[in-house]
Design brief:
The protein is α/β, with parallel strands linked by helices and 224 residues long. It has helices at residues 36-46, 62-65, 68-75, 83-89, 100-112, 182-195, 213-222; strands at 2-4, 7-10, 16-20, 25-28, 52-56, 78-82, 122-124, 129-130, 133-137, 146-150, 155-159, 163-164, 171-172, 200-203. Helix content is 30%, strand content 24%.
Length: 224
């Protein structure tokens, strides 16, 4: 699905996004392993003659990185993350455990779907630009959660620091269930909209918001 002239949404259990540049393309997150076929098809359809140069990771939850095993080997793209997320992606360390039943379920999932880790090739920091994407470090959902703003179009790729509804009309706060520190994540989400004035909002879960100014205003008022 084309969101903007150079940005394609690849929906699954997690939204992934393909950005087409003049000489290359970039992927935001990978989804689960089963998403790899759909991503490969999208690249072949829209960027058949352009190399996949970068895979930008918003955070290390398995539903956002499991496709790295297939896509990283196939394309040899640089995997980019924040330094606070690197060790989790590479499976050098485990993310801090979430309490309660959800935490137990996540640990069972990790046990049943073990990862040997994925190489991170480039570390980015807050406000740095990589592959024409400005980085915002927004901890809380995970320690190294980041969002990316396309400097060409001002499209904002939010990962899980916010969610949206299924109509693409309302911004929802970060998940209390999956955030390591919900209050920190909520604060970071509001900070993101103070730093960025996006043309479109592209979440990890939910529908894109194509004209977000009113939705941002409502969100900041509701969660101030």
């Amino acid at each position: 699905m084309k969101v903007l002239e150079n940005i394609y949404l690849i929906p699954s259990s997690v939204n992934t996004y393909l950005i087409e540049r003049e000489a290359y393309c970039v992927l935001i997150d990978t989804g689960m392993s089963k998403s790899a076929k759909k991503i490969i098809k999208t690249i072949k359809t829209y960027c058949p003659d352009k190399p996949l140069k970068g895979i930008m990771i918003t955070h290390a939850h398995q539903d956002h990185i499991a496709g790295l095993e297939t896509l990283g080997q196939l394309y040899g793209a640089e995997v980019v993350s924040h330094k606070e997320e690197r060790d989790y992606i590479m499976n050098i360390r485990k993310l801090p455990a979430i309490e309660g039943l959800v935490g137990i379920m996540l640990r069972m999932f990790q046990f049943l779907s073990p990862s040997s880790g994925y190489t991170v090739d480039q570390i980015v920091t807050d406000r740095e630009v990589a592959f024409e994407l400005k980085v915002y470090h927004l901890p809380g959902h995970t320690p190294g959660t980041i969002a990316f703003e396309d400097i060409q179009t001002r499209a904002l790729f939010c990962g899980d620091i916010i969610n949206t509804n299924q109509k693409g009309s309302k911004i929802l706060p970060p998940s209390k269930t999956f955030a390591l520190d919900y209050e920190q994540a909520l604060k970071a989400s509001k900070q993101m909209f103070q730093l960025s004035k996006p043309s479109v909002i592209l979440p990890g879960h939910g529908k894109p918001i194509l004209n977000p100014s009113e939705a941002i205003k409502t969100y900041l008022e509701e969660y101030s």
